[in-house]
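Researcher: We are triaging several targets before committing to wet-lab work. For this one, the compound of interest is adenosine-5'-triphosphate. I'm pasting the protein sequence and the ligand SMILES. What I need is the predicted three-dimensional arrangement of the protein with the ligand bound, expressed as structure tokens, so it can go straight into our comparison scripts without reformatting.
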Amino acid sequence: MTTTAAATTAPVLTATGVTMRFGGLTAVRAVDLTVHRNQIVGLIGPNGAGKTTFFNCLTGLYTPTEGTVTYRDTVLPPKPHLVTQAGIARTFQNIRLFANMTVLENVLVGRHTRTKEGLLSALLRGPAFRRAEKASEDRAMELLAFTGLAAKRDHLARNLPYGEQRRLEIARALASDPGLLLLDEPTAGMNPQETRDTEGLVLAIRDQGTAVLVIEHDMRFIFNLCDHVAVLVQGEKLVEGTPETVQRDERVIAAYLGTPFEGAPGEAEAAEVQAAEAHAAEETDR
Ligand SMILES: Nc1ncnc2c1ncn2[C@@H]1O[C@H](COP(=O)(O)OP(=O)(O)OP(=O)(O)O)[C@@H](O)[C@H]1O
């Protein structure tokens, strides 16, 4: 785990006193959170705790009732396209791909905040436009290779298996070259193998220099991957710290986990994967 080393680096994200009220309901109350470069930070908590609302405040989808969100040294305006331009990208709880576009086209759409060619240049298709187009495609192909989707570049997004659609969303988010990636339940609905692939991908994203803030209900994923974990309960931050600290905290156990998280990381998951693989092999033999 890299909490100590990472904490010495400058923060990429600083949320200060973020509060979000919907009429009489306070969904998020005075939440502070810092994410450092080279960190994977997990945000956990029961259903309705305010996790997605907090994400929406960070990405400008909601204007927080109170508080500020700072990316590196800049206080962010609550406008999603400006937040993306500043360097924060996200995925959503439900898949939001362009289903009838190809895999490559989906990633190219994610590049648009990083291309500067204007409408006239696009209409004239001059040399500068063609150079920019080629550079975008090269970068998109790099990201498809990184996410293991290069061979599927010309497939329609809607024809990909579920796990690959989720990976494509991540590739598209990475296309804006973010310094911070927000993932909202990236393994929801995945089988054990897909979950394992996603874990590898999230580690690789962190290792190549993009910090990650992830909402996830899969505690194995959270406690195996995260450098730091924050727990939201009823809109308030209950506890934060290393995975070890959080999983042993009596208040977290009482409010969310139910029982302490046990077992060597990945052990049970590995058994599930083996069982699934054995079942698949039996099906093929039949
Ligand atoms: N646009 C909205 N208008 C009114 N209330 C909302 C809105 N969005 C969220 N809420 C409420 O805010 C609270 C927090 O919801 P939120 O979706 O942020 O929780 P969550 O922790 O992400 O839950 P889950 O794990 O189930 O996704 C809930 O009571 C929810 O009903």
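Researcher: Any quick observations?
Model: The mean pLDDT is 87.
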